[in-house]
Design goal:
single chain, mainly beta, two-stranded antiparallel ribbon
Length: 151
């Protein structure tokens, strides 16, 4: 399924831009070795997330590409579950392949996202700005998108 989405600011925790002393390399930088040990190599992607607003769509978790349970990646928070889903983003006629990164809302303690925001892990994309509209494609068996205006 392909939908339009808008680039929005995030918390800056994943990339480390928020300068939280607990996560000096960002949460993605700290989590990457744990995911690598579990079979998911994130080293080909930018070590942060791109936040996108998919409204008027909302999402439901289908069958994730990867699901990791109780990953104890930080001494500052309890272990978390993580979902990953295939995604592609089209911007200025180029397509970028990556993953939807989703800490399980049931185990996530901080930096909660609105139900219309997805976090993407992708290669670095030059010139992308907040407010830019992109095309997002997800595998409908992995993550289910529903238009809330049609319900």
């Amino acid at each position: 399924m392909t939908i339009p989405a808008t680039i929005v600011p995030g918390y800056g925790a994943a990339s480390g831009k928020n300068q939280d002393h607990r996560y000096p390399r960002g949460t993605i930088g700290l989590q990457t070795p744990y995911f690598q040990a579990l079979g998911l190599d994130l080293s080909v992607y930018y070590p942060g997330t791109l936040n996108i607003d998919i409204s008027p769509y909302s999402f439901e978790i289908g069958t994730p590409k990867h699901f990791f349970k109780q990953v104890a990646w930080s001494e500052f928070i309890s272990p978390e579950n993580f979902y990953f889903f295939d995604v592609s983003l089209e911007y200025l006629t180029k397509t970028y392949e990556g993953l939807v990164y989703m800490p399980d809302p049931e185990t996530k303690e901080e930096h909660l996202q609105p139900p219309t925001t997805l976090e993407l892990i992708l290669p670095k994309i030059a010139d992308l700005q907040y407010g830019d509209v992109i095309s997002l494609t997800v595998a409908p068996t992995q993550i289910l998108l529903t238009n809330t205006l049609i319900q």
